[in-house]
Amino acid sequence: MLKMLTTLAIAASMTTSVAFAQTGSGTPGVNGVAVNGNTTTVFEAANDSDLQMHLLTEWSGFAQHHQKIAVQLGNKPALIDNAAYLRKHPELAKLFDDNPDLLSAMKRDPGNFVANQPKSEE
Question: Where are the domains of the chain?
């Protein structure tokens, strides 16, 4: 009886599990598909056409030279609106003064810039 219940439990769990498949059809931009019951999730390649690469490049260069600031902003993005923090880091204030579009982009989508944080060499 226990063996039969175990077999039924395994069979039931197998029918409710998520099935993953790689697309072999060569569909451009599709990395894979997951099917769970009547729900199908299609994993598409990221679309970076709306990213402002010049702003990301500007931030990346600054972050490379000011790693401590980059890490602090990555941990607490709201610091870009903190006047005391900007007074303490005039190089950051100058970056934002010279690149007002960068400041507004960082406020709008801080995650785009956190991903570009430099890795420490420790």
Answer: 2-44, 53-114
